[in-house]
Write a structure and sequence with these properties.
Structural class: mainly alpha
Protein name: Related to Inorganic phosphate transport protein PHO88
GO cellular component, one term: endoplasmic reticulum
Distance between the termini: 57 Å
Organism: Hanseniaspora guilliermondii
Keywords: Membrane, Transmembrane, Transmembrane helix
GO biological process, one term: protein targeting to ER
Shape: globular
Order of helices and strands: HHEHEHHH
Largest sheet: 2 strands, antiparallel
Number of helices: 6
Length: about 180
């Protein structure tokens, strides 16, 4: 299933669940907190297990890929593409996968801290449902989960951004005549 469609499904399902629950009842809020923490703990344990499996398998096969800058990086640089826009990188599968797991964990920690701030400081309770489901869903949909938990073959590098190349016109068009 397409992750974008499933994200919309998770959002609609969590909104439906939240409308059915009494979000002012402290007992229900405690259950939501337990749900949120347990799902995030499960996600963290899966990432840790994947990291252990990467180190255990120690696949030293080299991969080559071009480090493409994201559109946001180009936007913040004023739209200027420098000479290092596409740098070819050679890494082992172990190094690449560990780098990917570390990036996933960094995003996981950031999400967790933001949700903790929203819930504890701003007293939001409704996002506990959606943010309890989203991390485990993202974890299960990632290629590292497919490779190290499900044992499927995956193509590296993961999720390269395909940017269309701009073609320059081969010849100039004649100027329009003014009447």
């Amino acid at each position: 299933m397409n992750p974008l469609v499933s994200n919309i499904g998770v959002m609609l399902l969590s909104n439906y669940i939240c409308k059915r629950l009494d979000m002012t009842d402290p007992k229900i809020i405690d259950y939501l907190r337990i749900f949120y923490v347990s799902m995030n703990l499960l996600t963290y344990l899966i990432y840790t297990y994947i990291k252990v499996q990467i180190k255990k398998q120690n696949n030293l096969t080299t991969i080559k890929y071009k480090n493409q800058k994201s559109p946001m990086e180009l936007l913040f640089k004023g739209g200027k593409e420098d000479d290092n826009a596409e740098v070819e990188i050679v890494k082992s599968v172990v190094d690449y996968d560990l780098e990917q797991v570390d990036a996933l964990l960094k995003g996981f920690y950031t999400s967790w801290l933001m949700m903790a701030g929203m819930h504890l400081y701003m007293k939001y309770t409704q996002p506990l449902v959606q943010q309890g489901i989203s991390p485990i869903k993202a974890c299960v949909e990632h290629d590292l989960f497919k490779a190290y938990i499900l044992g499927q073959e995956v193509q590296r590098p993961f999720g390269q951004i395909a940017q269309p190349k701009e073609e320059k016109p081969k010849k100039k068009l004649p100027a329009a005549k003014k009447d």
